[in-house]
């Protein structure tokens, strides 16, 4: 008999996925199944906090240039 | 933009009510009349009129006389609306008798009374016989209602606040004399999730996506949104001694009253007198001090009509833009049942390809709305300037406002010069670069796409995997699969489970 596991499928870029894998490596409490480069299944109750952590991580590393301030 | 949404909301609410509630509601001629006038499509009205004075039930097939073959769909829709509002009764189909249709007794009697003005019911309000203060005229009531309503809108908008943008906050507390809506109204907005508690704002609450949708609605739809929240709140709290059926028929009664006339509070039941304070808070009625009179405002009298209640937010912006500061108070011209279409075409926002934004307005409300997603820089007597930045858009998105909402707001309020230029050049009204960039800024926030569901794994054989995954694909629940890993992910579980069971039986 096959098994059915409740969870949330996440589809994202490989770069984002590697961050999620890294976040999971601390407590191993996020990922249920690592599917492929762009897909993984995570626990339903962790999605919200995962999104927040991801946002924090991206804020540290990603800072695009704004157009120059108004000169008028 | 959102014309007619109010009746949809109301229909949704009404359709959930049980039949007994409708029987009570239809005891009031004003309710039956308001429902007939406002909630029914034309064909349904025709059916009601045909049945109204019919001495005995009509055969259902007789209604087909009015309907061409092509109109069958409309006939079915009309009948289903009439049934869901419990206006007609249709006998169940049987072999020996053809189906018959008739009006529900209460509805029929009440609508007859409403049309004939018969019986001595007070369903359409009892005018006050006491002397009336002559300063309370239509202009006064319109000013009063608008003030009350804008306070509520301000509360929703300014729930953002505290971002340090000078212009934005200037549009807030300082402008509307700082009174704001009553605590009960604030609670309703919270309960309806138009705003939510948040600690990072000055007022302790923040606007939600539903709140932004609310702001973009026509005034009439906004009023109904709030009133339905009020009805629901009363339903949850029986201690208040207000029955939602009575509240609803009271609202329908208010809608039938005449603007500018004084009505007698003593003619109301005690329950209804208890509702008056809430209605005052919403701006639906005005009660002068120490009198036994109440005046319905335009917010109340237009509840069940198609003419616009006060001005919509968008029309208000246009009016504010047209009114130089210091013009006569109570710009009455903008208040009347002015056709919303002309008002809507007068936008005030100009946006350039370099993300700079100019809004020709002095309306604190519009400025506050703009401050939700714009970095405002300067404010002049009749205009504000600012620009859309990554941060300002992302902040708006973090409140739950979507990129599409911002874009449609900008498009709906674009200055007529922008519209004219776009028409002559055959280009979109908003600069495509800006529109795309707003969408991209939103996408940055959505780094991953999530789907809740079930992962299937550990199959006994490749055949079993293939059979189940292709079945999931057939029923349309398959989201992802890997033949190599022999796993797949589905959004729903039930069909696969049933399929597995049925296969087991066969084996």
Automatic annotation (TrEMBL), chain A:
Query: Coiled coil where?
Result: none
Where is the protein found, in the record's own terms? Nucleus
InterPro entries hit by this protein: TFB5-like_sf, TFIIH_TTDA/Tfb5
Pfam families, from UniProt? Tfb5
Q: Which GO terms describe its cellular component?
A: transcription factor TFIIH core complex; transcription factor TFIIH holo complex
What's any GO biological process attached to this entry? nucleotide-excision repair, preincision complex assembly
What keywords were assigned to this record?
Answer: DNA damage, DNA repair, Nucleus, Transcription, Transcription regulation
Subunit structure as annotated in this protein's UniProt entry: Component of the 7-subunit TFIIH core complex.
Q: What does this protein do?
A: In NER, TFIIH acts by opening DNA around the lesion to allow the excision of the damaged oligonucleotide and its replacement by a new DNA fragment. In transcription, TFIIH has an essential role in transcription initiation. When the pre-initiation complex (PIC) has been established, TFIIH is required for promoter opening and promoter escape.
Into which family does the record put it?
Belongs to the TFB5 family.
**Name this polypeptide is given:** General transcription and DNA repair factor IIH subunit TFB5
UniProtKB/TrEMBL annotation, chain B:
Where is this gene product found?
Nucleus
Q: Which domain of life is it from?
A: Eukaryota
Which Pfam families would you find in this protein's record? Tfb2, Tfb2_C
- What Gene3D superfamilies does the record tag this protein with? 3.30.70.2610
User: Recorded GO terms, molecular function?
Assistant: ATPase activator activity; double-stranded DNA binding
**The keyword Transport is annotated on this UniProt entry:** no
Instruction: Assign the protein's first listed, main location to one coarse class.
Output: nucleus
Give the UniProt record's GO annotations in the biological process aspect: nucleotide-excision repair; transcription by RNA polymerase II
UniProt keyword terms in alphabetical order: DNA damage, DNA repair, Nucleus, Transcription, Transcription regulation
Q: Which GO terms describe its cellular component?
A: transcription factor TFIIH core complex; transcription factor TFIIH holo complex
Transcription factor Tfb2 C-terminal domain segment(s): 436-501
Record-linked InterPro entries: Tfb2_C, TFIIH_p52/Tfb2
Report the NCBIfam families cross-referenced here: tfb2 (TIGR00625)
Q: What does this protein do?
A: Component of the general transcription and DNA repair factor IIH (TFIIH) core complex which is involved in general and transcription-coupled nucleotide excision repair (NER) of damaged DNA. Component of the general transcription and DNA repair factor IIH (TFIIH) core complex, which is involved in general and transcription-coupled nucleotide excision repair (NER) of damaged DNA and, when complexed to TFIIK, in RNA transcription by RNA polymerase II. In NER, TFIIH acts by opening DNA around the lesion to allow the excision of the damaged oligonucleotide and its replacement by a new DNA fragment. In transcription, TFIIH has an essential role in transcription initiation.
Which family does this protein fall into?
A: Belongs to the TFB2 family.
Instruction: State the name under which the record lists this protein.
Output: RNA polymerase II transcription factor B subunit 2
Query: Which species does this protein come from?
Result: Podospora appendiculata
């Amino acid at each position: 008999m096959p098994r059915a596991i409740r969870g949330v499928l996440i589809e994202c870029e490989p770069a984002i996925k590697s961050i999620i894998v890294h976040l999971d490596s601390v407590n191993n409490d996020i990922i249920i199944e690592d599917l492929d480069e762009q897909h993984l299944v995570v626990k339903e109750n962790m999605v919200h906090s995962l999104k927040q952590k991801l946002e924090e991580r991206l804020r540290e590393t990603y800072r695009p240039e704004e157009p120059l301030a108004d000169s008028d | 933009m959102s014309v007619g949404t109010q009746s949809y909301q109301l229909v949704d609410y009404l359709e959930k009510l049980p039949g007994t509630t409708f029987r009570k509601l239809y005891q009031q001629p004003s309710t039956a009349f308001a429902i007939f006038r406002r909630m029914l499509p034309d064909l349904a009205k025709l059916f009601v009129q045909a049945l109204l004075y019919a001495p005995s039930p009509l055969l259902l097939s007789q209604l087909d006389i009015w309907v061409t073959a092509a109109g069958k769909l409309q006939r079915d829709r009309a009948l289903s609306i009439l049934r869901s509002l419990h206006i007609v009764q249709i006998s169940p189909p049987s072999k020996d008798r053809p189906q018959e249709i008739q009006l529900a007794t209460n509805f029929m009697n009440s609508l007859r009374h409403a049309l004939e003005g018969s019986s001595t019911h007070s369903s359409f309000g009892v005018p006050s016989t006491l002397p009336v203060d002559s300063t309370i005229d239509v202009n006064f009531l319109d000013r009063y209602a608008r003030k009350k309503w804008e306070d509520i809108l301000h509360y929703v908008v300014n729930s953002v606040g505290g971002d340090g943008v000078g212009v934005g906050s200037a549009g807030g507390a300082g402008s509307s004399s700082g009174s704001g809506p009553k605590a009960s109204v604030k609670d309703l907005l919270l309960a309806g999730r138009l705003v939510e508690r948040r600690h990072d704002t000055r007022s302790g609450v923040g606007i939600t996506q539903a709140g932004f949708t609310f702001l973009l609605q026509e005034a009439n739809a906004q009023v109904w949104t709030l009133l339905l929240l009020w009805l629901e709140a009363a339903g949850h709290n029986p201690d208040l001694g207000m029955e939602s059926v009575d509240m609803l028929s009271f609202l329908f009664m208010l809608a039938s009253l005449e603007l500018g006339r004084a009505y007698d509070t003593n003619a109301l039941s005690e329950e209804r007198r208890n509702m008056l304070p809430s209605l005052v808070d919403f701006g639906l009625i005005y009660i002068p001090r120490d009198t036994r009179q109440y005046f319905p405002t335009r917010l109340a009298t237009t509840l069940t009509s198609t003419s616009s209640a006060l001005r919509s937010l968008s029309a208000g912006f246009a009016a504010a833009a047209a009114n130089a500061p210091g013009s006569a108070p109570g710009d009455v011209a903008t208040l009347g049942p002015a056709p919303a279409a002309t008002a809507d075409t007068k936008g005030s926002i100009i946006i350039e390809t370099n993300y700079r934004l100019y809004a020709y307005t002095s309306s604190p409300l519009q400025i506050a709305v703009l401050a939700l997603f714009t970095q405002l820089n300067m404010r002049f007597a009749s205009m504000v300037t600012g620009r859309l930045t990554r941060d300002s858009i992302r902040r708006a998105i973090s409140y739950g406002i979507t990129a599409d909402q911002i874009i449609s707001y900008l498009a709906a309020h674009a200055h007529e010069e922008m519209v004219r230029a776009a028409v002559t050049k055959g280009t979109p009204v908003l600069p495509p670069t800006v529109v795309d960039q707003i969408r991209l800024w939103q996408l940055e926030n959505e780094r991953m796409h999530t789907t809740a569901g079930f992962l299937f794994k550990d199959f006994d054989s490749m055949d079993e995997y293939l059979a189940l995954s292709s079945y999931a694909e057939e029923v349309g629940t398959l989201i992802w699969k890997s033949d190599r890993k022999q796993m797949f992910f589905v959004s729903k579980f039930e069909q696969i489970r049933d399929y597995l069971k049925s296969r087991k039986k066969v084996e």
